[in-house]
Amino acid sequence: GQNIDQPTEMTATEGAIVQINCTYQTSGFNGLFWYQQHAGEAPTFLSYNVLDGLEEKGRFSSFLSRSKGYSYLLLKELQMKDSASYLCAVSRNTNAGKSTFGDGTTLTVKP
Amino acid sequence: NAGVTQTPKFQVLKTGQSMTLQCAQDMNHEYMSWYRQDPGMGLRLIHYSVGAGITDQGEVPNGYNVSRSTTEDFPLRLLSAAPSQTSVYFCASSPRTGYEQYFGPGTRLTVT
Prior knowledge:
The structure holds 2 protein chains of 2 kinds.
Chain A (H helix, E strand, L loop, with lengths): L1 E4 L3 E5 L4 E9 L4 E7 L6 E6 L3 E5 L2 E6 L4 E6 L8 E8 L7 E3 L3 E6 L1
Parallel strand pairs in A: 2-11
Antiparallel strand pairs in A: 1-3, 3-8, 4-5, 4-9, 6-7, 7-8, 9-10, 9-11
Chain B lengths: L3 E4 L2 E4 L5 E7 L5 E7 L5 E9 L2 E4 L6 E3 L9 E3 L8 E8 L7 E2 L3 E5 L1
Parallel strand pairs in B: 2-11
Antiparallel strand pairs in B: 1-3, 3-8, 4-5, 4-9, 5-6, 7-8, 9-10, 9-11
């Protein structure tokens, strides 16, 4: 089976940096996704890590350590619009559509 | 491109009723999936398909059927609705050679 853990809630201040952690235990692993989901909307893709290391994409970066079963999403220069739920998901093969999701971390950005 | 579309947006059913949630994509993606999302939780995979004519079960398939007669369409059928199936249902598609999933806007289903 698969077990994915993320903090339930986090709060940060506008302009600051926040790190959202995700740990996983899986029977197989191909890659790890991060999605953003605003309240009442569909998830949107943020990043995908297959190899160990840091992937940077603008204000967002994602890190993966396969040996530790650990990932984090780093959000820099926080904006109010970054208030959303952030979902960590693991795929066991190359089919992204067969992913297992964590319960998500609700991030609130305060002025 | 319209992307991934889902109908209806909202639906209320009585226990025991059946219905079909529609999902279509116009990106020629091979992979399509159905997820449900309960309040405060992540997405759980119901069924998925790797191409026309091929479907398989996800984590929570009981009470649901799917078929994939064309690349574009992937309907989800609720056989006999139960209150436990009250949820938001998302359809998603992804290309075989890529890894990004594109999600539809969701169907909010209430079973009374």
